[in-house]
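Appendix C reproduces, verbatim, an entry submitted by the partner laboratory led by Prof. M.T., so that reviewers can inspect both the input and the predicted structure.
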Amino acid sequence: MKYLLSLFILIALASCGEEVVHQKTVSDGFTTSALQSFSVSTCAQRTFARPPVDILYVVDNTGSTIADSFQNLKSELQNTINTISSDFDYHIYFVPLNASQGESATTYPLLANNPDSLPNLSQVNLVQPSNLEFFSQASGNNVEHGMTRAYNIIQLNRDNGIFREDAHTIVVMISNGDDTESNRNVGGNVIPDQTVLSQQIEEFKSLTKKYADANSLSNPLNAQMVRFFSLTAKSTCNGWKVGNNYQQLSRELYDYQALTDNNIGKDTVDLCSQNYSTLFSPINNSIQAVIIGHKYDHWKISSASESQIQANDIEVTKLKLDGSRVSVPEGSVNGFEYLGYQTNIDTRYEPTSGEPVSGLVVKLNGSARVEYPDCIIAKTRTPTEYFGYITVPREPDLETTEIEINGKLVPPSAQNGWTYVGFRDTINIKVPGPDNVSVSPPVNKSGYTFQLNGNAIYTNGDTINVFYKPKAQ
């Protein structure tokens, strides 16, 4: 029993002695900031361009239009202009069916919601809708070469920019009669001359891109589509003639282009109905805004400064519309080149140069270039830092000092351990390390300083602990 009591006393004394030793030991510890990764996803842009639409109104001014029944259509027909979509870049040109004496491009009015689309305003008679005079006065004769008239007007007004290549070209023929050039008299009966009519229809087909692609033409119009709306009588109302020839041109041109937006009338409108409010509905529905995808050979990957990222650890990934990802390597042929911080550098090269940015930028080469609707995911991270010094607030007793990095004891050594360098008012604890990284921006500390040598230096995310007794004063 006495033996056990003595043992307890010895253990208690030993514990008390250990406590006394460690009571004066100080532990200073910290963990360096970990590396942080940043991911930025941005996408190529696009522009909605208003499609060019060129419209020719050919208004009957033959003798039959003197009648009040035709003159009363003026206001309602003028209202059709207001139904043309404002999403179009339109030219609307108004000419009489029979030419005026000495006419030129400036003789007749032109509406354009984008005057900049005309190369020379002095070559046209650009007017405001409020100043439009829709109809010419009747000429008093009954000759009607409407198809030839419309075709020639288009061809004669290309150089002045009224009728443009690659546009949507539309003719609105307003007549209470029929084309007389494509008729012939057989035994006192007037019937269509199919030979002449076929030639006239062929001329209008030749204005289309479809026709130009299949035939060798000089200076083709290359119209995206050509429409011939015939506002003519479909019965003998008001003493008007049925416009069979005009209507045949409308239907055949419609079928030739395999259009589907107006299958009931096929671009024929009954003048007798006096209901023209939906005249341009097929056009408005069938012509869509043109999407112009932008193309890029530069890309902003971050708004940070150059010192805030690790330049040799940038990841660039192209994200496709189908969700697939393509890694973009670093390289000057089909990869990216890091340019550092750039100010107001253009990133887009098509349809025009533009979309300048300021920030950290990469140059995209070859197949690494980006175009709408692709996106780019750019990953960067904070730079790797190395630290070669530790400071403590009190002067240490070096005989009691122990330094641990990530729980591993670092020996005192000038080779791969620590040495004490004394008090420093200010010291940048960063060192170049094995990768020779920048020591800027500095991390300045003050205090009693240990220098770490060789492979004893520490880096981001490491935990450092210093155990020591303060030196007796």
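The mean pLDDT is 87. Additional entries are available on request from the coordinating office.
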